[in-house]
Amino acid sequence: MESMPYELDKPLILPEHLRGELQRVHGILLEEDEIKNIEGMIICVGDVVTHTLLKMGIKPKMAVVDYKTKRGEMVFEDVRSFGERVFRVENPAGTITPGLWDAVKKALISEKNVKIVVDGEEDLAVIPVVFFAPLGANVIYGMPNTGLVLLKITPEERDKVKDLIKKMEV
User: Is residue 62 part of a domain?
Assistant: First the structure.
């Protein structure tokens, strides 16, 4: 497979025909009590996911949040106060901006726990997370009306993300 650039200089836009593919569960559905058994680095995407982990006493390496849930704006105090380092980025729905791409990359090499606060939408943040996260890391994200999903970073998952990126519009 050809190599992918590590720098993104233009926004990637998710075409309409790929939306259905991303609405499927990629990974395994978790019961809340199964989270305690996860070993290794944990990265979470979503406010409710981050709140769930924090209330269980689990501090993720990185959390990507937008201070919204499917029911609208909602800020959990533990999510607001999380993060030894905080990045703020703009990222419209259906898009991965260079700012989000760069923030994920920097967050994962940081020695500290990092929160990325997205002004806009954080749902596609799983894509740069899978691209940059180390093999073996655990990504937990929320699937609306379904639950928490665990995606373990493997070479196969990374290849799927690279293929998806190639199909996105610049």
Answer: yes
Which domain range does residue 152 map to? 12-167
Q: Are 98 and 8 in contact (CB under 8 A)?
A: yes
Ramachandran category for residue 67: left, alpha or beta (phi over 0 → left; psi -120 to 50 → alpha): left
Determine the Cα–Cα distance for residues 73 and 70; give it in Å rounded to an integer. Answer: 8
How many independent structural domains does the chain possess?
1
Residue 21's pLDDT band (boundaries 50, 70, 90)? confident
Would you say residue 94 lies in a domain? Answer: yes
Q: Is residue 7 part of a domain?
A: no
Give 66's Cβ-side CA count (13 Å radius): 23
At residue 83 the predicted structure's pLDDT band, cuts being 50, 70 and 90, is very high
- Model confidence, pTM: 0.91
86 forms bridges with which residues in the sheet? Answer: 115
